[in-house]
Amino acid sequence: MEINSVINELKKNGVAVLKNLYNSRQIEKLNQYQILLEYNLNKLLNNEELKCNSHSIYRYKSHFDIERIKNKNQYNFDNYEILEIVKGRYDICKLNSNKNLNTYVEEILDNFIQKENRKQKWGLLTTSIKSNDGPWHRDTVNICGDPNEYGEYDDSAMVHRFDPFYFTVLIPLVPLTYENGTPEFIKGTHKMTYSEMKNKNCESLRFKTELGDAIIFDGRIFHRGRENISNVERPVLYNVIHRDWYAET
At the fourth CATH level, which superfamily is domain 3-243? Predict the structure, then answer.
């Protein structure tokens, strides 16, 4: 897709598909990176002493109808951060990775965040066979204040006054289909509060992708992982790119 079309889709819809982003040689390197990340996951899972010594509790915040906080198991060792999303499903991130972004992705991001003002990281999302739908959420936390006692939060400034400051790129290592759970996005909600979205008849978007494709989206868009009803796992590498002032703690 021509780069201006991708940029316009990101601005309008909050999400776009990058067709044929990676060639076969690059896909092989991505698979090798997946193996490296999974090796460290298995190293953790097979070593009770390492699990105990590297374990902490992470207060995971998510936002949809209200702000929710759930305690998640997190493990930090050898420059790796591993978060147990739900039992048996993990987010594995290599901290301080010097792995470069795809050059086409860099060109897209240059239109939103200057290179010297952004940070990025690589990670892997593992999936279980026969998994259920994930919850609706944004990838960003609400940066505009604390919720009230009922969990109700005000994110109007974040979606109406802030320029884009956070992007996620999903790099599936298998083709994504409705059967194995290609994610679902609520179109345009990177520019809407939950209340505004609830009062509109918003369209949901799902994309079938081939090997080598990727999905890029504004981290403020409401989305969820869908159920995997197939008999194979659905590994997805990801890039997170954000402005250098953004932090989740």
Answer: q2cbj1_9rhob like domain (2.60.120.620)
